[in-house]
Each structure stands twice: as structure tokens, then as C-alpha cells.
Design a protein that fits this description.
Keywords: Cytoplasm, Glycosyltransferase, Magnesium, Metal-binding, Nucleotide-binding, Purine salvage, Transferase. The chain has 191 residues and is an alpha/beta fold. It has five helices and eight strands, in the order E-H-E-H-E-E-E-H-E-H-E-E-H. It has a single domain, classed as Rossmann fold (3-Layer(aba) Sandwich). Strand 6, helix 4 and strand 7 form a beta-alpha-beta unit. The structure holds 1-O-pyrophosphono-5-O-phosphono-alpha-D-ribofuranose and guanine (GUN).
Length: 191
């Protein structure tokens, strides 16, 4: 059966990571976390909106199949706005709803690039007296190896290109793509 064309097909230059690869990696990361957290009853997953929404939903279910119970919390901290480079200023758009003091926290990120968002977030969470704070990110850009805080769980290393899909946007569009892709140059130029 021919698959239906979608509105975004014409905008895609190339797919970097397929839906199947994301699914398999999510299960693998969940198994690693479950092994490392054996003996711990409950973990608070802190998803970083909006980008991590897709990964958070899939990762929480994957962890639920093999690991400890989870509580879901979300924070929103934006440093990119509408563009493709970090503004350098992190703004809190949404705070935690509950106290994390004494809890084991796993920050769930979609992507770490400059590491600015994460560095800020880790300092912020440290000030809330969690028992432990660990990070899982599905994607890592090369810049993160120079400047980001230590990352325990990493899904895929990406090239230094601006990517979209699976939660990642360009001007708030393309988050719903099931894969991660690079857009055609003319699409980025249109803004
Ligand atoms: O390592 P960095 O250079 O700080 O980049 C990583 C952050 O950038 C994106 O968020 P963004 O600020 O674009 O907000 P969004 O998730 O709402 O799109 C992404 O979701 C990460 O949180
Ligand atoms: N959408 C998107 N957001 C990012 N934040 C940091 N790097 C990226 C990227 O490549 N794409």
C-alpha cells in the first residue's frame, strides 16, 4: 500500500534518525536507567518543554515497562525563541508543580546543544535539594561535548546542523514529525 503524502514531505532535505531508530533507542535507554536505578522505588522525570514532550511520553512508557514507578513533572525554559541559535538567555516559562526535595530526579531532554539550557536547569534543580539529579537526552550536538554538563544517558550524536522533528521545532513548526530531519535550505531561509 502506498503511504499517504504529508504536508511537510516537500520541506525535508534528509531524514537523520528514523522513527524505528528512535523507538529502539528509547527502549535501550529505559533499560539502562532501570538497571542503574534498581533498588529505587520512584523517580521523578522532569521533562523540558516543549521539545522533550514526545520523548518524555515515549520514555516514561518505556521505563514503566522495565523500571521504577515514575512521577511526571514538566519545566519550560526557553533559550532559542523563534530562531536557530541560542539567545544565550534562559527564561523560565513554567516551573515545577511539586517539591522535589529528597527525590531522585531524572531530567528528560530532547537535545543538548550549547548546554546552556541544561547548565541553568541543573543549577536550578540542585537548589531544590533533590536526592540525585541525572540527565537523559535523546540527542546531543557536537557543541555539547565542549560546553555541556556531564550527560549520563545519550541517545544519538547529531551533526552540527539545525534539526527538526520528534518535538524539535523551527518557528514552532515540525514538532509532530515522527523522525528527526534537516529542512531544505530554502525553508530555513523563509523563516
Ligand atoms: O543546549 P542548548 O543550546 O541550550 O539547546 C537545547 C535546548 O534547546 C531547545 O529548547 P528551546 O529553547 O528551543 O525551547 P523549546 O523546547 O520550547 O522549543 C531544546 O528543547 C533544548 O531544551
Ligand atoms: N529545533 C531545534 N532546537 C535546537 N536546540 C538546540 N539545537 C537545536 C536544533 O538543532 N533544533
Amino acid at each position: 500500500m502506498q503511504s499517504q503524502s504529508r504536508w511537510y514531505d516537500a520541506d525535508i532535505e534528509r531524514v537523520l534518525i528514523t522513527e524505528e531508530e528512535i523507538r529502539a533507542k528509547t527502549d535501550e535507554l529505559a533499560k539502562q536507567v532501570a538497571d542503574d536505578f534498581a533498588g529505587i522505588d520512584q523517580v521523578v522525570l522532569v521533562g523540558v518543554l516543549k521539545g522533550a514532550a514526545m520523548f518524555m511520553a515515549d520514555f516514561a512508557r518505556a521505563l514503566g515497562r522495565v523500571g521504577p514507578a515514575v512521577e511526571l513533572e514538566f519545566m519550560a525554559a526557553s533559550s532559542y525563541g523563534q530562531g536557530t541559535t541560542s539567545s544565550g538567555v534562559v527564561r523560565v516559562l513554567k516551573d515545577l508543580d511539586r517539591d522535589i526535595a529528597g527525590k531522585h530526579v531524572l531530567v528528560v531532554e530532547d537535545i543538548v546543544d550549547s548546554g546552556l539550557t541544561l547548565s541553568w536547569l541543573l543549577k536550578y534543580l540542585a537548589s531544590r535539594s533533590a536526592a540525585s539529579v541525572t540527565v537523559v537526552t535523546l540527542f546531543r550536538k557536537p557543541a555539547a561535548m565542549r560546553s555541556a554538563p556531564p550527560l549520563k544517558y545519550i541517545g544519538f550524536d547529531l551533526p552540527p546542523e539545525f534539526v527538526v522533528g520528534y518535538g524539535l521545532d523551527f518557528g514552532e513548526r515540525y514538532r509532530e514529525l515522527p523522525y528527526v530531519a534537516v529542512l531544505k535550505p530554502e525553508v530555513y531561509a523563509r523563516g
